[in-house]
Amino acid sequence: MTTPAPTAPADARHLVLTLSCPDRPGIVNAVSGALARRGGNITESKQFGDEASGLFFMRVQVMTTVAREELEKDLAELARTYSMTWSLDEVGRPMRTLIMVSKEGHCLTDLLFRARSQGLPIDVVGVVGNHEDLRPVADFYGVPFHHIPVTKETKADAEAQLLELVDSLNVELVVLARYMQILSPTLCERLHGGVINIHHSFLPSFKGANPYRQAHERGVKLIGATAHYVTPDLDEGPIIEQDVTRANHEDSVETLRAKGQDVERRVLAQAVRWHAEHRVLLNGLRTVVFA
């Protein structure tokens, strides 16, 4: 006879805690003990100690009836003891997301479809385009479209408009879905850890513009895509996810691009999901991904 799984109380909250701190004995016990003292039932827990950086990383999901504010008080005390950086959120809460695009719509269409029909935990509060080409896609999904053209002369004003949108819409995540513009160092620092880009190559190979042409010229047998956090250094940000597909001698630049676009969609969607589920923690130039 199978014993049914215990059900959570009707007023229970399912929370996700992520943290990082200098590695030392007793961290897991301290965190789990603090949650247990508040009646928390841990439903998922993963941790990683990085010998190279000397940092410890942890992600915990906990079911509790205790007010979130009470848990936050306990966690703040732990943070002082362990020099801990931490965040606490509701499991599954859609993350307020702004998607930035140029003319190619495959990544935008895929993200909007997954958010509507496949449980991607983002709330797309707007689409920003430096061209008007993809306004019909945003309109189809009922998402406001903001046209912010960018030239060398207007770049500073365009980024100021972007930051106004980020603040007014309470944006938590910005996704560059083939935006094809380089963000300024000032903007990268302002949105640090909150901007994900999809680059159409398997970094660190073929950085910058026209990676499919570069791949064709080199005759590669694998092409790929890389989702990474944006930093002031072009295509150098911490990598979240990568994937590849086969190429051969018969491929042209255009057939490589067509093959690659499918990989781009998958990689970007996976990276956005992991970020929205608080499964990605920054570790210097790298990431820890609790997939």
Task: Please tell me about this protein's structure.
The protein has eight helices and 13 strands. The protein has 291 residues and is α/β, with parallel strands linked by helices. It folds into two domains: 13-90, Alpha-Beta Plaits, CATH 3.30.70.260; 95-289, Formyl transferase, N-terminal domain (Rossmann fold). The protein has a seven-stranded mixed sheet with strand order 7-6-5-8-9-10-11. Strands 2-3-1-4 form a four-stranded antiparallel sheet, with helices on one face. Strands 12-13 form a two-stranded antiparallel sheet. Helix 6 (185-190) links the parallel strand 8 (173-176) and strand 9 (195-199). The longest helix is centred in the last third of the chain and has 24 residues, at 253-276. It is globular.
Q: What is the CATH architecture term of the largest domain?
A: 3-Layer(aba) Sandwich
Q: What's the CATH class of the largest domain, please?
A: Alpha Beta
| Discrete helix count | 8
What is the global morphology? globular
Q: Distance between the terminal alpha carbons, to the nearest Å? A: 33 Å
Average pLDDT confidence is 93
Strand order of the largest sheet: 7-6-5-8-9-10-11
Helical content class: 25-40%
Main β sheet profile: 7 strands, mixed
Strand percent estimate: 25-35%
Number of strands: 13
CATH-wise, what's the superfamily of the largest domain? Answer: Formyl transferase, N-terminal domain
Give the C-alpha Rg: 21 Å
The secondary-structure class comes to: alpha/beta
N to C succession of SSEs: EHEEHEEHEHEHEHEHEEHEE
Number of individual domains: 2
CATH topology of the largest domain: Rossmann fold
Low-confidence stretches: none
